[in-house]
Amino acid sequence: MSESNPFRISREVTEALAEGRAVVALESTVIAHGLPRPLNLETALRLEAIVREAGAVPATIAILEGMLSVGLTEAEVRHIAESDRIKKISRRDLALALAEKWDGATTVASTMWIAHRAGIRVFATGGIGGCHRGSLPDVSADLPELASTPMLVVCSGAKVVLDLPATREWLETYGVTLLGYGVEEMPAFYSRTSGLMVDARVDSPEEVARVAAAQRALKMEGAILVTVPVPVDAEVPAALLEEVLGAAIDEAERAGIKGRELTPFLLSRMSEQSGGATLRANIALLENNARVAASVARALS
Ligand code: PSU
Ligand code: MN
Hints:
The protein is an alpha/beta fold. It has a domain at 1-120: Indigoidine synthase fold (3-Layer(aba) Sandwich). It contains twelve helices and eleven strands. Helix 3 (39-53) runs parallel beside helix 12 and helix 6 runs parallel beside helix 7. The longest helix has 24 residues, at 277-300. The relative contact order is 0.15. The site of pseudouridine-5'-monophosphate has 19 residues, from helix 2, helix 6 and helix 11.
């Protein structure tokens, strides 16, 4: 049974999609591995509420007993937020999760893979993965997924722990369109500036929808990244950011932390070292991105 249809899409999301209403996909790695408890659960539920208030249907995505689940109940969101047995599932893990009936949180890559196949066109997250710093070429599976899945991904750029110039070049090479929502510069997650330019600035959800329609008409297979800077009052000051980032990267290196543990480790160390400043920025940008994504989804529907 689960082999023939591994998807489990909630009734609310199924109906909204059938009626052509606005739906926004939300990922779950940020809940399970990106934010500390109990803020993770509060944030996950608040993101859903924000999407609803803005007139769209939220579709939080996760793996539950191997099923690719789209649209979770509150109890299921709580399980993802509170259980110690939630794996971080990227694209390479999807078949394993299905075969082994795992419970897992989905990254940007696997959330996109599932959301697109469920018929959802808009996805909101915090920061995408990208090219890591350092000599080993550690490139997030988020990037090739963005190159091959035609969705609108609303985010605050790539996480600042990454090599942002390399990530920006990668996006260009593989044809991912990079839009700045009200800005010319690609945001850098906790920070509004990166020194890297977007392909074009857009100033309204309707403008984003027009680009998406044109991309669809051309049958392009890649994503459009809509980058939205962290709200001004939640931005982390550059000097503080530089200090805590440098320290976190050094510590990860000394402790030999790599692979899928690296991103969660860096995010949590930076939050501790900044007295919660990066955590506040992370939550503020997630909320803001959910709001923008809902307005874009409405403009598309
Ligand atoms: N955005 C956040 N917090 C996170 C992530 C994104 O604000 O924890 C997650 C996303 O799920 C993204 C993942 O796909 O980090 C990237 O992990 P990696 O670098 O291991 O590919
Ligand atoms: Mn990696």
